[in-house]
Amino acid sequence: RADNMAYVIYTSGSTGLPKGVALSHAGGAAFLAWAARTFDANTLSGVIASTSFSFDVSFFEIFAPLTTGGAVLLVENVTRLDHLSTDPAPRLLVTVPSAMEMLLHSSSLPSSVRTLNLAGEALRQPLVDAIFSTLPQIKTIRDLYGPSEDTTYSTWTERWSGGLPRIGKSIDNSKAHVLSNYLCETPLGVSGELHLAGMGLARGYLNRPALTAERFIPNPFGPPGSRMYRTGDRCRWREDGNLEYLGRLDHQVKIRGFRIELGEIEAALGHYPMVNQCAVLARTDGGQETRLVAYLVGTTAPVAELRAHLAATLPDYMIPAAFVWLAALPLTPNGKLDSKALPTPELDWDALSVGFIAPRIPTEAALADIWSQV
Predict the structure, then answer these.
(1) Rounded to whole angstroms, how far apart are CA atoms 180 and 197?
(2) 82: which of 99, 160, 213, 312 lies 20 to 30 Å off by Cα?
(3) What is the signed CA dihedral for 309, 312, 317, 320, rounded to 10 degrees?
(4) Half-sphere exposure (Cβ direction) of 61: Cα atoms closer than 13 Å
């Protein structure tokens, strides 16, 4: 039947604990129907497939071309396409932005490729600009967002040079809701948690009914018995009707009493012209208090300039204590950031600490006395 299980994708998400997502035939069929309407036959005539079968994007790479009469072009490494067959000619590449960054510098992308599907992590505007300026054969870049729990992709949009980072609108047969903690629709421009509904929803987590009930909740906006998935992603609707991705809700850290969204710092760094890729972590090294560390890929720039750039839009407590330049960000086998492999910064933490400043006026003395008693 349509609701029978078709396959299981294991995903760890942000918890590190693998869980099996049970996907149905109906969800897969609805997704492929959208793909056939969105991508023309010529684009799907040669799809480069480099993703592990254990990663949900492979579902598109394999079945979108095969269900429309196209061909799947298997490769072992997406960053090494020099020896890819040209019969049939590759037309579409599906990969993550991190891998596309390396491919951009290797100059091995076949000249016949016209369309890029980039998904799996945030697509920074500087990378979009670099692709269009470096690879004139690329005519279309699609930014696709979606968790495994909603059959590969949930929203999509086209990106262009000089545009704004967005994750777009819902694909066919899917519906996105940005909700408050009380499951109310948030106003335009106000952030909330992204919830997904529609035909693509998974049946749940394999043999984990409690987790399924926690993440797949009743849908108050749909027919009786329908469900929606709590993504854990923070988004907001923009004036143009597109979704803006603001980071993970569990990507929030607390440092010196301040709640900090690491994604906001990464977005601000992404607008600096010398930065191609970046990741920000909260680290505690050598028994010191938690500090923010920014890992950057691009053209090395003075730390003072980076701090000044961030200070224009971010408060002081959101400016990283250390900036580490890398040749490339470490990736997992699925092409996502491997945060555990990021190096410990060589930095004198004590030198960054502000020394004791005695009260200078009576008001400061009174406040210091109150706090010392508390």
Answers:
(1) 16
(2) 160
(3) -10
(4) 24
**pLDDT 10s digits, 87-115:** 899 999 999 887 888 888 777 889 999 99
**Any idea what DSSP says for residue 35?**
H
Does the global pTM surpass 0.70? yes
| 301 close to 269: Cβ distance less than 8 angstroms | no
Structure token digits, residue 276: 């191609």
Tell me the C-alpha distance between 66 and 220, whole Å. Answer: 37
Quick one: CA torsion of 239, 245, 251, 252, rounded to 10 degrees? -10
DSSP string covering 181-250, please? TTS-BPPTT--EEEEEEETT---EETT-HHHHHHHEEE-TTSSTT-EEEEEEEEEEE-TTS-EEEEEEGG
Burial of 264-292, coded b for 16+ CB within 10 Å and e otherwise, reads: bbbbbbbebebbbbbbbbbbeeeeeeebb
Question: At 222, phi and psi to the nearest 5?
Answer: -115, -175
Q: pLDDT tens digits for 294-305?
A: 999 999 999 999
Q: Write the pLDDT tens digit of every residue in 116-155.
A: 999 988 888 888 999 999 999 999 999 999 999 999 999 9
